[in-house]
Design goal:
The chain is of the alpha+beta class and about 160 residues long. The strands form two sheets. It has a four-stranded mixed beta sheet, with helices on one face. The chain is about 35% helix and about 25% strand. The longest helix has 17 residues. The protein is elongated, with a radius of gyration of 29 Å. The protein folds into two domains: about 40 residues, Translation initiation factor 3 (IF-3), N-terminal domain (Ubiquitin-like (UB roll)); about 80 residues, Translation initiation factor 3 (IF-3), C-terminal domain (Translation Initiation Factor IF3), CATH 3.30.110. It is built from five helices and six strands, in the order αββαβαβαββα. The N and C termini lie far apart (about 85 Å). A hairpin with a 6-residue loop joins strand 1 and strand 2.
Length: about 160
């Protein structure tokens, strides 16, 4: 029957009793499967790990700025790797870096959680924060619009 119509006989489920077969264009069937796979790959969320570096003697304003950046990354659904760099004799005081990272993790608890606890690696201490919301759930807020400036008067308005 398939040869008469000019199509292929495709076995759909060989384990069924009796096996299920379909008369169809096999090339078109393969193309449709490839399209579905490609579409599924495009809809996948890509996990991005952002990195923020701190010094041990960071000023309060700099700390607040970096904390707001971390919050923004976590709200966007990205993971954040937070690193404290130790310089010179600071390397003998890793507990200060640990306290700084734990303070930060408590302040951003609303937006993210500690995925990997602070760990000393050479001259730095690293911690990874994961977002509470997944990337697909995170809502991108539109950029704030510039303050509305009054429009320049038209030629007709000036003439009057």
């Amino acid at each position: 029957m398939a040869e008469e119509v000019g199509l292929d006989l495709v076995e759909i489920s060989p384990d069924a009793k009796p096996p299920v077969c379909k008369i169809m264009d096999f090339g078109k069937y393969k193309y449709e499967i490839a399209q579905k796979a490609r579409e599924a790959r495009q809809n996948q969320t890509h996990i991005v790990v952002k990195e923020i570096r701190f010094g041990l003697k960071i000023e309060p304003h700099d700390y607040e700025t970096k904390r707001t950046h971390i919050e923004r990354f976590l709200k966007g659904g990205d993971k954040v790797k937070v690193t404290v760099q130790f310089k010179g004799r600071e390397q003998t005081r890793p507990e200060m870096g640990y306290r700084l990272l734990m303070k930060l993790s408590e302040e951003v608890l609303e937006f993210g959680f500690v995925e990997f606890a602070p760990k000393k690696e050479g001259k730095s201490m690293t911690m990874v924060l994961g977002p509470v919301l997944k990337k697909s759930q995170a809502v991108k807020k539109p950029a704030p619009k510039a303050a509305a400036m009054p429009a320049a008067p038209t030629v007709q308005e000036v003439a009057q």
